[in-house]
Description:
alpha+beta; Lipocalin
Amino acid sequence: xxxxxxxxxSVCAATLLLFSACSKDDDKNVSEMSVTEMNSMIIxxxxxxxxxxxxxxxxxxxxxxGEERLTFNSDGTYIELLEDDRYTGTYWITNKKELIMRNxxxxxxxxxxxIIETLTKTDLIMLLGDDDYGHKYYYKK
Length: 141
């Protein structure tokens, strides 16, 4: 009977340890993540949730709504569906935890640079802005 209790205790302890180790990895701070980890986590489709914005004069707000989806592919390309518009391009993540999105749909190409603040299996939060204005975008998987 003691052997059975020890075995049951060992299995329970191992299971608990396994789950706590997994949740720790899931909650890793962006500053602790390598570019390789971030590249693997960003792959997939992200649905726009909301946006916070502010201006230097103190004006600020939150906007919801609109249909937007970002899809990051493993080959370094992305597709952005915004209402009825479709944008495509390439992306990469820098050592500074910046997401560079090169839009290749117009007469000229341009880069959008966003700072990745949060990246988990279910949440992506990115900042676009400077001291005078800013936008923080929230996405869900």
